[in-house]
Each structure stands twice: as C-alpha cells, then as structure tokens.
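Hi X.,

You mentioned you wanted examples for the new student's onboarding notes, showing what a folding record looks like when two proteins sit in one file. Here is a clean example. The first protein comes first, with its sequence line followed by its structure tokens.
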Amino acid sequence: MFDPAADAEVRAVWALLSNSNIDSSMMTLGVAPHLTLAVMDDVLPAPLIGRVNALAARTNPFTLNFDRIDMFEGSETV
C-alpha cells in the first residue's frame, strides 16, 4: 500500500479519469491504490527470464519495499 500522500494522488487521478468519462473501473471496484506488477492467465517463468534480465541490465539500482505481495485468484478481472 502507498503512504497517505501517494494514496491521495492516485485517487485524485482515478477521480479525474472517472469524471472525464475515460475510466471509472478503479473507483467502481472500490480497491485501494496498488501496484500491479503482472497480469497473466498462465505463469510461464522461463520465457520471462530473458526479458527480466534485459530490463535489469539497463535499469539503475533502486530501493523498493513491499508491504505485502499477494495475488488475486480466479478468472474475473479485479
């Protein structure tokens, strides 16, 4: 989860998108602001290894802390 300031910023963007009739899905779903790292029907890690390694090779190091790592199970879009 984001800190309160980042949470408010994300919700403000969601409200702008909704009020502009662009996309209201995040507000309609009532979810908290979050970071989606991947959306997959099937997890096939082997094909992703090369892409992840290429991304890592061209990205400067940075610190990233997770409050938790979780997943949504099922076939419905969340």
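Then the second protein repeats the pattern, sequence line and then tokens:
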Amino acid sequence: MNAKKYAQAQALQLRDHEIYRLHVVEKERVSDLMKKFGLSKSGLEKVLHLFEERNPKEAALMKQQKKDVTAEDTQELLR
C-alpha cells in the first residue's frame, strides 16, 4: 500500500474511533454526529457497526467503562 493510501486509511480509522467514542461514551445523538461528520444516517450506522465488528475488545471496554476509558486503557487492551 502506498503512503497516500495508508494515510487515508489511518485517517478513516481515527474518524471511526472518534465517532464511536462520541456516540457510546459521550452519548451524542446520531443526528448531531451526522451533521458533524457529514454522513448520512445509514453511513453513520455502518461506521458504528463496523467499528464494533473490527474492534470488539475496544468497543466492549468503551461500553463498560463509559467516560472512564482513556487512551492508555485502549493501548493496554490491544497489546
């Protein structure tokens, strides 16, 4: 994968992580996230579903601990 495609993939992963965190931890509404990220409802729901599917441990940690999840917790879990 060339550098540009890799950078784009990384940016999308970071975006998806932030969307999931805002929805699950911060309890932001789907409609607010749609406006903030410029996604349709189906697009946003797909992002949420795929994040859970691709990152089950991280998603479970976010759901359990709510606002107490830190970046260090996530890194430790993924080791």
